[in-house]
Amino acid sequence: MTNHPYLRAYLAGVLFPTLVFPLLLTALVLNLLAYGQPFPVERIMVFPLAFAPACWGLWNVLWLASRNRTHLPLGLHGAILPFLLMPLATVLAKRLGVISLGAHSVTWFQAIQVPYAVIACAFTFALVMYYLVWKYIIGFVNRVLGIA
User: Fold this and answer.
1) Full-prediction pTM beyond 0.70?
2) Cα–Cα distance, 58 to 12 (Å, whole number)
């Protein structure tokens, strides 16, 4: 099974976010219906739904292409991805007016203030989750597709 390894790597990387984001969207819509508070779901979900799976797939292709030179474990390679996605998402959200950056907190949709300490904890949690997802789930799919 040596045909098209980069295509298989892309598909392996796309699998997890493609399955998870519709579940998150469902949870957000149910939250909207249950609590009735207006929350612009489309402003925060459309971009990740389109961008994240492609980014994960390309990141897995990059791991496959560079693993002979770098010998970087897949989990560690996956944990690097939030360091690229968070600044990109922050710049995009700032440009779209979704967030405003303050001295001590970030304000989302001119309504929700999140202190930077909470964001740092969430980012650390995201790093751990990315490591585990990439090591176990993406690694499993890579092995099933014969590219790991």
Assistant:
1) yes
2) 10
pLDDT in tens, the chain (148 residues): 568 889 889 989 899 988 888 888 788 778 778 877 666 666 666 677 778 889 999 999 999 999 999 999 999 999 999 999 999 888 988 888 888 899 999 988 787 889 999 999 999 999 999 999 999 999 999 999 888 7
Q: How far apart are CA 59 and CA 38, in angstroms?
A: 35
